[in-house]
Specification:
heterotrimer; A alpha+beta (about 190); B alpha+beta (about 150); C mainly beta (about 350); A: four-stranded antiparallel sheet; 6 helices; C: about 350 residues; Herpes Virus-1; 4 helices; elongated; ATP-binding (chain A)
Chain lengths: ~190, ~150, ~350
């Protein structure tokens, strides 16, 4: 069945992702398919995808968001622990194809996001997911790269032509739209 | 080319399977007599699709362009999509009132397997149009819809 | 042409070309400096592979001398050029002529290095009491007593001897040292050279044939010799270890020079080896393999200890099985994406000799 003969590498990566999550990232495999991961990425600070700071206690936030496996570690790169948010939480899905790690994982955003390298279906234009894949990369490094892509949109290599054009011609306005979308869709609720 | 799990133990989840099918549809299939695409580019769950079949040669369907609607629910591809003709057509497996392709009369849907794709459905429907019991049936006027 | 994989047999291989400068990357490994309390020279010495370049010399019978499963053993690759050297030096079995493999997968062998100049510490500085002249300094390890000779524009001869191209400018002098790790070598004041004698352009490169280098440091040691064998030249030769460091001098600002080491060569038992650092070897399974140690595991299966390095980029990052698997799908190093020309298995665990 789906989870028989799961390569040891995948088991190890999964264990490490759960026991030592990268800051602002959580990934957990789905119960019926160990190659299929539910992923949460927090929008990086000082990006338009940054979490909005709402005055909730940390405990309240966790109840509201209910998404972080290990909140303190996961939020390590955030600001002070008392600031908290229900914005800037992006849901993704990740799948390890049969050829993994010789082939890249497949990843896409499920949360709507206004970004020149991410299309309406959440598909991501990122070289390491395509021709620059290396089997030395891992789920963790892929997700960190995606998080970094949120900090550094690249409108010169766009996936969404319109957003890229917007970014190049009226950057301030595009950033505002990205913030607005973050507020509207990336509430983590 | 086989999309999906293809007999291995690896199960491609619904969304990634549909993304594969989308990409394949965008590239164009075979001789172009069968094609499909997504209806709503904003629907991240990729549920509604429109398929097109060009009627096969040496049949009453020759030269006709048939449009179909395919709906992939959450349980796709474990379960087949629901399929109905938008363009009017007279073949045995299609309900005359609604245009729905009736699974009982269309083996591919009746004996659905996870590896089957929307492309397989459209290709099989094209073959269905050319079967002896369908190829000479009187057809509704072109350009009419269910 | 075809792929050929063997973990047990050595075979002829295509000529090795010096690799480009390794790219900076997260596996980049530098040998760690030795702490004075360290009882072993090997943290440092291990970070090399050794490549013989001289086919005739590599046919010399392999001598087993003082082999012990201890520190200080280099993994070695003996590179035979052409089919003339079709002798498996490890097992003395002839190798059947077969098509040259597209990518060679061979095992490294180890030799012990008794003397090592830390190439990162090599400097030339102005002689304070003789400001026209420059003096060489560096840190080195020696397991036995020996000597250092500094040459300028020295030409390497077939037998491992060096001759200065301009003896009128500087005559090399042997300077003795005693055994010890992490020693600092300073060229005595007054024995230096006036670098102003040479063109800057000449100082910054080797000869086109790569046999003359602006700065050559020969460090050699001798094992304590049994007196009865003292006059036996071949024994002497066997016991002599020599490490050659070939460098160029690049002008920085003012009168100061930066030393860039181009190559290190090792002569052991009359065989010439070229030393190359391997990236990632320092975190390989030298001290046993613990399943939870992420630095030691193969980057592909994350299960087996890594024991295979990629040439020419010298990234040691995979186990043998995954290296085979990778070659079926890709010709790029997983770490730096440079094309793979060759794979070498390197076993570092002591006790497998």
């Amino acid at each position: 069945m789906a989870n028989s003969n799961l390569p040891r590498r995948i088991i190890k990566e999964t264990q490490r992702l759960l026991s030592e999550p990268a800051p602002g990232i959580s990934a957990s495999p789905s119960e019926d398919n160990m190659r299929y991961f539910n992923v949460m990425i927090l929008g990086p600070t000082q990006s338009p995808y940054e979490a909005l700071h709402v005055e909730f206690s940390a405990a309240n936030r966790l109840k509201l968001c209910g998404c972080m496996v290990q909140p303190h570690k996961a939020l390590g790169s955030w600001r002070s622990p008392s600031t908290s948010s229900c914005g800037g939480v992006f849901k993704l899905e990740l799948f390890l194809p049969e050829e993994y790690p010789m082939a890249a994982p497949k990843v896409r955003f499920l949360t709507k996001i206004y970004h020149p390298n991410i299309d309406k279906l959440g598909r991501i234009c990122l070289d390491i997911l395509k021709d620059k894949w290396s089997p030395a990369l891992q789920i963790r490094t892929v997700l960190l790269s995606i998080q970094a892509l949120l900090s550094a949109p690249n409108p010169d290599d766009p996936l969404s032509e319109n957003i890229a054009k917007h970014w190049k011609t009226k950057e301030a306005e595009a950033v505002e739209t990205a913030k607005e979308w973050t507020r509207l869709y990336a509430s983590g609720a | 080319m086989t999309l999906g799990s293809g007999g291995s133990s690896v199960v491609v989840p619904r969304n990634f399977r549909l993304l594969e099918e989308l990409e394949r549809g965008e590239k164009g299939i075979g001789d172009g007599t069968v094609s499909y695409g997504m209806d709503d580019g904003d629907d991240i769950y990729m549920r509604s699709w429109t398929g097109t079949v060009i009627g096969p040669h040496n049949t009453v369907h020759e030269g006709r362009i048939y449009q179909l609607k395919l709906f992939c629910d959450k349980d796709y591809p474990e379960k087949p999509p629901s399929v109905r003709f938008h363009s009017r057509i007279n073949i045995t497996c299609v309900n005359h009132e609604t245009g729905v392709v009736e699974p009982k009369k269309f083996a591919l849907l009746a004996n659905w397997q996870r590896e089957y794709t929307m492309e397989d459905i459209l290709t099989q429907l094209k073959k269905e149009m050319a079967t002896p019991h369908n190829r000479k049936l009187v057809q509704p006027p072109e350009g009419t819809y269910f | 042409m075809g792929l050929s994989w063997s973990n047990t047999r050595r075979r002829t291989a295509t000529c090795y070309h010096p690799p480009p400068q390794p790219p900076s990357c997260y596996y980049h490994h530098h040998a760690e400096p030795i702490s004075p309390s360290s009882s072993s020279a090997t943290t440092l010495l291990l970070s090399f592979i050794i490549i013989t370049r001289n086919p005739s010399l590599s046919l010399l019978p392999h001598r087993h001398h003082h082999i012990k499963p201890t520190n200080g053993w280099y993994p070695v690759i003996r590179h035979h050029v052409g089919f003339a050297s079709a002798i498996n030096t490890a097992t003395a079995q002839p190798i059947l002529p077969e098509p040259a493999p597209f990518v060679d997968h061979q095992n490294a062998k180890r030799v012990r290095n008794d003397v090592n100049v830390h190439k990162d510490t090599l400097k030339v500085e102005i002689d304070v009491s003789n400001p026209d002249h420059h003096l060489v300094s560096f840190v080195f390890d020696a397991l036995f007593d020996g000597s250092v000779t500094i040459f300028y524009f020295a030409k390497e001869e077939q037998d491992g001897k060096f001759f200065p191209a301009f003896p009128e400018a500087h005559l090399p002098e042997k300077i003795s040292f005693q055994k010890g790790l992490g020693q600092k070598f300073h060229q005595p004041s007054g024995t230096g050279i006036g670098l102003g004698f040479f063109e800057l352009d000449d100082l910054s490169k080797s000869s086109p044939e790569e046999d003359v280098f602006p700065l050559v440091i020969a460090a050699e040691t001798f094992l304590p010799v049994d007196l009865t064998n003292e006059n036996d030249d071949s024994v002497l030769n066997t016991l002599r270890h020599m490490q050659i460091t070939q460098a160029v001098l690049e002008r920085k600002n003012g009168d100061s020079f930066h030393v860039r080491v181009i190559r290190q060569i090792l002569w052991v038992a009359g065989v010439r080896y070229e030393l190359r650092e391997i990236y990632g070897i320092g975190s390989s399974a030298t001290e046993g393999f613990d399943d939870s140690d992420q630095g030691k595991e193969c980057v592909i299966c994350m299960t087996e200890p890594k024991d295979t390095a990629v040439l020419p980029c010298r990234h040691m990052c995979m186990c043998g099985e995954c290296a085979k698997e990778l070659r079926l799908q890709s010709n790029k190093c997983p770490i730096c994406r440079q094309p793979i020309e060759q794979l070498i298995g390197i076993k570092i665990n002591s006790g497998d000799q």
